[in-house]
Amino acid sequence: MNSAVQALECRSVSKVFGGLRAIDNVSLAVPPGSVCALIGPNGAGKTTFFNVATNLFPPSSGEVKFFGTDLSRRSPHDVARFGIIRTFQTARVFPGMTTIENVMAGAHLHVHSSALSQMLWSRKARAEERRLSFVADALLKMFDLDRYKDSAASELPIGVQKLVEVVRALMAKPRLLLLDEPAAGLNDRETKDLARLLRAIRDAGTTILVVEHNMSLVMGVADCIFVLDAGRLIASGPPEVIQNDRNVIDAYLGRTEERAG
Amino acid sequence: MSSIVQIIIGGLLQGGVFAIAALGFSLVFRVTNVVNLSQGAFCVLGAMGMYYFQVLFGWPLLASAVAATFCSVIFCVLVGAVTFVPAASRLPTSSALILTAGLLTFFVGVTLLIWGNQPYSLPPFSGEAPVVVGSIRIPSQGLWLGAVSAVMIAALWFLLQKTALGRALRACSENPAAARLMGIDLHRMILLSFGLAALIGSIGGILVAPLMSIQFDTGHFFTIFGFVAVAIGGMGSFGGAIIGGLLLGVAQQFAAYYVSSLFSNTLALLMLLAVLVLRPSGLLQSDAPRRTDVRDEGRVQRPLVRTSSRTALILPMIILVVLVAIPAMPLSNGLLGSLVITLILFIAVLGLDVLMGFGGQVSLGQAGFMAVGGYCSAILATNYGWSPIAAVGSAIVLSVICALILALVTARLRGHYLALATLAFGLLVDSLAIGLVDVTGGPSGLVGIPSFSVGGFSFGSSVRMYYLTLALCVLLVLALDGATRMGFGRALKSVRSDQLAAAALGVNVGRIKTSALCVSAALAALSGSLYAFSFHFLSPEMVETPRSFELIAMLILGGESTLIGGFFGALVLTMLPTLVQELAIYKTAVEGAILVIMFLVMPEGIYGRALSSLDRCVRLRGMEANVGAKA
Question: Are A77 and B503 in contact (CB < 8 Å)?
Fold first, then answer.
């Protein structure tokens, strides 16, 4: 088949809840080094697809491969270890921790000193700690979040919390970053900033798949867009193609005959 | 043959007692998802009230039963309204669980104040003569118990399934937020369930009082075995509560008859562990499916103790200087001895803080690890002549092995089931400490334990022991501060806050929990060993399950996830009864009240509050200085 290894490849994935086909035979591929977006009207199955793709629950049929590897039997932390990091639709910052702690918690996979050497305040552990906090500071600054550094993360506005979550995910240095509606709760200017940052992250070598409602973010940032409707993939391609796709317009605005009737 | 039948009947009677307590657990759990540990106290209050009206005032049976039930329910509802209701609606379920442990202690303390510490017993309802069927004798009170329990279960089932009120109660358990939006008064429903549980408990207490003797602390017994019964039968299922209770009773009677009454509890607890491992949700699953995904995996809101690194240093430094100077002051030897105990218990609280404060895993079995460590050291040093250091080392290893086994066994358990498993572990250790007379000396304890010594240098005097424990505490605080400040601590806190999100970042949740449990077990073993070496004596009641609750109270009182806070908790709860001897009778009630009040009023604890006020002062100063500089 295709010789290039895709960052994420789904082959005829279906998910059935009871009698409901939440996802119906979806095949798609996210090429490495790209930003792809998954869009669709409410109830199209975006979040279900996302959860299947991130192993939160297994598909009823079909297969999901990350960089050519089937991870469906792996535990969530193994998936993360493999370089696939996700954020959540409802911001899930860690309450009871400050913003900087939250962000540094994202670097868990890159803490190599043992708990014992941390107990002994070993030189290696302290050096690692300094390095991580330096990276965290830099990332917070890049996202213009440094003023919230020492605030309780759960007391920040929702939009800011979602950005903190993105920064936290970046601390894990993912190969594939899966973002679930990162722009929810952001205003126009912040959304534009986010689009710019996402492109910068892609250029630094991280593949991104984003599920999003916000069209201005999607059209501004995605190299490739997949459109889901009622569990089926109804269109895929670059933004300018999707914008003029008959099926997509129908899905979002209702069918022509219905509108006429 | 007839002896077996007789054992079974005895077991069913015993089991009926457990089932009554289990029923109340089940009801409150269904409505609030909180395991209400104060359930056992309701039974005692009912029974004690009954004694007042029936025996002292000489009222007729029915009138005194009604009056006793009425009084105890009113009292419980009044207390519940200001404690349990805000807790169950506001605190995470694990905190509410600990709050109810405080309530239990409070009720036990109040019972001690009113009725003293002598045992009471009531006459059976319809005379002493048993009902004889063939060659089998059934105490008539057993029939009363069975019949009234059946009526109560039927009434409860009807209330929950067939009435609008019951629908509202069930809605609260399914989805409290949505129930509220539908106009259901959540607070009133929680209070109602608490009141109903008090009603069941009181009636149950009145029914079982003639079968056993009731004492101020019988509440612990009811709570523990009711809890075990409901866990075996299935949380939140009424049928499960009854079956669990009866099974437990029968199993205990058989163990007592065929093995030894010393081991009757051991068997019950092994049974509980087996059920927890094989069928974590109990033999009978709740008929109301519950969305554990939303509640158990919930995100835990904790007060955030924030300090800049410099201010965080001031307080510990002051404390350390005071502590180092204390032996130079003119103090009685007894006071210094109490300080040694404070520091030793502080070590166990430190372990608990790593597990509970940072890791968010409730352990009701910390004293069990203290016992494992304490007995291991004491036996090796006393009977086998090992050097204390080697004995302590082996004790820590043994305790960590126990923790690993427990972690392995409970790997699938979450939330309150983990709390349950640790409780079962603690109780199992209790029963072994009492039962293995040849090894542990049984109830009368181990005597002649040598003083702690290192290479010929003995820590026999209290001053030497004081400096030894102080040095150990300082080293441990420094070490744990390092680990909790860096990667390990962040992983722990992320698991405490949100397991799903933590796993998505690559945190191996099971492994982190296991390491926290091991750290906590190691420190408990160290603490238990020093405890034995410092008293030269170790008996089961020094490291029994009530001690686990006391350690939790110390942690909450001092402040969770502050490390040093536990010292103040240990200090207050150790010193209070020694300083005011004549008030010792109030100790239990005050201890319970402190725990409950702290949770509701100052959840960050004494030390946490002190730190944040200090921090605020420093920040304000800094701001003023900035403003001054600009002007």
Answer: yes
Q: What pLDDT, on a 0 to 100 scale, did the predictor assign at position B293?
A: 34
CB spacing of A119 vs B301 below 8 angstroms: no
Å between A97 CA and nearest CA of chain B: 7
Nearest of B417, B330, B336 to residue B97 by alpha carbon = B417
Q: Please tell me whether residue B195 adopts helix, strand or coil conformation.
A: helix
d(CA B394, CA A165): 44
**Alpha carbon of residue B10 to chain centroid:** 29
Whether B506 sits inside 8 A of A77 (CB atoms) is yes
Q: Give the CA count within 13 Å in the CB-facing half-sphere of A139.
A: 26
Chain B nearest-CA residue for A151: B306
Pick the range with the lowest mean pLDDT from B70-84, B389-403, B406-420: B406-420
- Structure tokens given for B581: 């001897």
Please name the residue that has the structure tokens 């094989």. Answer: B278
Contact B482 A54 (CB under 8 A): no
Contact call for A96 and B304, based on CB within 8 A: yes
Radius of gyration of chain A (CA): 20
Element of type H or E holding A176 = strand A176-180
Distance CA B478, CA B476 (A): 5
Residue numbers in A near B488 (CB within 8 A): 115, 118
Q: Any chain B CB within 8 A of the CB of A80? A: yes
Inter-axis angle of helices B487-497 and A123-142, nearest 10:
60
A95–B contact, CB cutoff 8 A: yes
By C-alpha distance, the chain A residue nearest B357 is A96
Please name the member of B486, B491, B502 whose beta carbon is closest to the beta carbon of A125: B486
Q: Which residue of A has its CA nearest to B560?
A: A96
How far is the alpha carbon of A33 from chain B, nearest alpha carbon, in Å?
A: 21
Interface check for A94 against chain B (CB to CB < 8 A): the answer is yes
User: Predicted confidence band at B471 (pLDDT cuts at 50, 70, 90)?
Assistant: very high
- Shortest Cα distance, chain B CAs vs residue A95, angstroms: 6
Q: How does A38-67 read in b/e, with b if 16+ C-beta sit within 10 Å?
A: bbbbeebbbbbbbbbbbbbeebeebebbbb
Task: Nearest chain B residue to A111 by CA: give it.
Answer: B487
Contacts of B515 in chain A (CB under 8 A): 115
Q: pLDDT tens across B535-557, in order?
A: 989 988 888 888 888 898 889 88
Reported as a pLDDT band with limits 50, 70 and 90, residue B412 is: low
CB B34 within 8 A of CB B97: yes
Contact B369, B402 (CB under 8 A): yes
Integer angstrom CA distances of residue B565 from B16, B319, B364, B536: 43, 11, 19, 28
Q: Please choose, from the candidates B442, B362, B273, the residue with its C-alpha nearest in 3D space to the C-alpha of residue B94.
A: B362
Which band of pLDDT confidence, cut at 50, 70 and 90, is reported for residue A254? low
**DSSP states along A132-175:** HHHHHHHHHHHTT-GGGTTSBGGGS-HHHHHHHHHHHHHHT--S
pLDDT of residue B402: 94
Q: How far is Cα B398 from Cα B401, in angstroms, rounded to an integer? A: 5
**Residue-wise pLDDT tens digits, B103-138:** 888 888 888 888 888 888 888 887 777 777 777 777
Flag whether residue A175 sits within 8 Å of chain B, measured between CB atoms.
Answer: no
Residue B387: φ, ψ to 5° = -70, 145
CB of B487 within 8 Å of a chain A CB? The answer is: yes
**Is pLDDT at A236 greater than 70 in this prediction?**
yes
Amino acid, res. B391: A
Q: How far apart are CA A93 and CA A80, in angstroms?
A: 17
Could you give the CA distance from residue A140 to residue A98 in angstroms, rounded to a whole number?
Answer: 13
Contact A96 B497 (CB under 8 A): yes
Q: Which residue is it, tokens 């700690």?
A: A129
For A108, which of B301, B479, B487 is closest by C-beta distance?
B487
CA gap B92, B102 in Å, rounded: 16
